[in-house]
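sorry for the late reply, my laptop died twice this morning and i had to redo everyting from scratch. anyway the thing you sent over, i finally got around to it. pasting the sequence first so we're on the same page, its 241 residues, then the predicted structure underneath. double check i copied it right bc i was rushing
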Amino acid sequence: MVSFCVQVVLSTVHDHIRHGLSIARARQSIFSEEDLSVAGVYGYIRVSSMDQNEARQRVAMAEHGVAASCIFLDRQSGKDFNRPQYRALLKKLCPGDQLCITSIDRLGRDYKEIQEQWRIITREKQVDISVFDMPLLDTRRVKDLVGTLIGDIVLQLLSFVAQQERENIRRRQAEGIAAARVRGVKFGRRPEPLPAAFEEAYREWCSGTIRAVEAARRCAMPVSTFRYRAKRYETETSGDE
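ok and here's the structure:
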């Protein structure tokens, strides 16, 4: 019996995927007939860094009728949910509200955390979620048992893909950094130029004429900084001899 039910569910999922485009268009036509600009409809936007542009997500929100004043934006990684605007959004949500996101990876990129936050929003807070690029993840439409089961399966698959993509990004970044280091690329902030008095102070310090405290004073820097810069200077100049 269980095996038969699983086969039925998988067959249903397969049919939904095979006809995904027509389903998406049908649902979008339904969305267009609804007034999503009323109070209680919120949008959540996330970009991973300060230099990424959220314009595409804002356009999608506007197309679905989400008011600009009801959009919460975080410029932060999706590795966890410790984000200020997301936390503010959770406090704002009330039973019967609707949360809109453009895709599941904008919610987050951690498999277990996505599942947990989805449960908190839909079950504890009793808020509906609409994922624009995946109509099957619209909790307003899947209130029946089979629909809910299909939605859960799709959510797990997309959450897995989101985390895999995050891990792939981290791996590619690590590989890129390693390759750059092999080529001699140095990372980190460039050191400040040496003060005019440094070379003379360095020579006198090396000869024992003055102590490090006096050399650092002449260079207007802490003793620890002077020693660090002196070590770097020695390394860099030794290669020129």
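The two ends are 82 Å apart (CA to CA).
thats about all i looked at so far, will dig more tmrw
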